[in-house]
């Protein structure tokens, strides 16, 4: 069987970095490109961080595209208080040298999907601005998308940026609304599942043992990144949200959830960006999303260790 073509839409972010590394370390996947979006930090820093990660993986040929620098309607809210001033704090990174493509990410998404002979999987792990803008510009791309497997939302555990909303959806709820209404096959990897897989000290030590800069820098960035969550939730370790999307593509049997009808709140300031999940089918509407809420955490962490280790030079 051929490789599965995917596009990662991202705002790195240490956990985005892990998703990119997991994808690049997995021979089943063909990463056609990485599209950058403002989110965890502003767009120029996001692009720098995506380049840093591809170079860390020894994959400077990966195509990186600059996308939207702000949400569709609301002002940009970033998360340097979690990810650090650069968005990717922890180790001392070398300045990246690999190029950025000239074409805008939204144009490239449209062109690539329209030209695709085989449907492409999208993995958005930041605000959904680029994906929604591409769908609005050219709705004919929707049938060319195999599925959207996205990190975002929270229902059973609530939000992480407000009591009601998770960061990626909160930053651009109007974009999320477009994607959730689009009819595209959608898998949501919300906080409900990512908070069931917390990094252990042993796993971080094993990641740190990956030879060379790769292991050292991963351990340094994850140790920095999990401080915020450990302080807030008083747990032994933090969640590493974004790679769950890529892990789902590789080993779907590690995850389970339920097909549900999900709506995005875009009106109320109090609950802005809330993912309203009709888990019990109270409204009798057709499901628009598979809402994941269970994970085999040991299997997930073992998969990351195995695949990312394979990137060591
Ligand atoms: C999501 O928000 C970002 O801070 C992380 O990178 C992740 O995509 C978690 O809410
Ligand atoms: Ca992210």
Write structural notes for this entry:
The protein is an alpha/beta fold and 313 residues long. It has one domain (4-312): Inosine-uridine Nucleoside N-ribohydrolase, Chain A (Alpha-Beta Complex), CATH 3.90.245.10. It has twelve helices and nine strands. The protein has helices spanning 14-24, 43-56, 80-83, 105-115, 129-137, 167-171, 173-181, 191-194, 201-208, 212-233, 243-250, 297-309; strands at residues 4-10, 29-36, 64-66, 120-124, 145-151, 186-189, 255-264, 275-278, 289-295. A nine-stranded mixed sheet has the order 3-2-1-4-5-6-9-7-8, with helices on both faces. The longest helix has 22 residues, at 212-233. It is globular, with a radius of gyration of 18 Å. It starts with a strand and ends with a helix. The mean pLDDT is 97. Beta-D-ribofuranose binds next to α1 and α6.
Question: What would you say about this model in short?
Answer:
The chain has helices at residues 14-24, 43-56, 80-83, 105-115, 129-137, 167-171, 173-181, 191-194, 201-208, 212-233, 243-250, 297-309, and strands spanning 4-10, 29-36, 64-66, 120-124, 145-151, 186-189, 255-264, 275-278, 289-295. It is α/β, with parallel strands linked by helices.
């Amino acid at each position: 069987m051929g490789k599965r073509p995917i596009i990662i839409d991202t705002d790195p972010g240490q956990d985005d970095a892990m998703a990119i590394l997991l994808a690049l370390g997995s021979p089943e996947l063909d990463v056609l490109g990485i599209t950058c979006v403002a989110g965890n930090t502003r767009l120029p820093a996001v692009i720098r961080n995506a380049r840093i990660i591809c170079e860390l993986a020894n994959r400077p040929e990966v195509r990186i595209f600059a996308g939207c620098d702000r949400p569709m309607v609301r002002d940009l809210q970033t998360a340097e208080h979690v990810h650090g001033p650069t968005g990717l704090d922890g180790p001392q990174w070398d300045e990246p040298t690999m190029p950025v493509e000239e074409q805008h990410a939204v144009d490239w998404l449209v062109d690539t999907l329209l030209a695709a002979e085989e449907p492409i999987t999208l993995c958005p792990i930041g605000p959904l601005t680029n994906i929604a803008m591409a769908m609005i510009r050219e709705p004919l791309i929707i049938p060319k998308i195999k599925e959207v497997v996205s990190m975002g939302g929270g229902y059973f555990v609530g939000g992480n940026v407000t009591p009601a909303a998770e960061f990626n959806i909160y930053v651009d709820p109007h974009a999320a609304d477009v994607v959730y209404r689009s009819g595209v096959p959608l898998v949501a990897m919300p906080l409900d599942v990512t908070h069931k897989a917390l990094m252990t000290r042993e796993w971080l030590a094993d990641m740190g043992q990956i030879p060379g800069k790769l292991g050292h820098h991963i351990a340094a960035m994850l140790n920095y990144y999990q401080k915020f969550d450990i302080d807030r939730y008083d747990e032994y370790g933090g969640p590493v949200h974004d790679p769950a999307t890529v892990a789902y593509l590789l080993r779907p049997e590690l995850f389970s959830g339920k097909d549900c009808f999900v709506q995005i709140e875009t009106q109320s300031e109090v609950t802005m960006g809330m993912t309203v999940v009709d888990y019990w089918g109270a409204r009798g509407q057709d499901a628009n999303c598979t809402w994941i809420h269970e994970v085999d955490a040991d299997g997930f962490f073992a998969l990351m260790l195995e695949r990312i280790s394979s990137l060591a030079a």
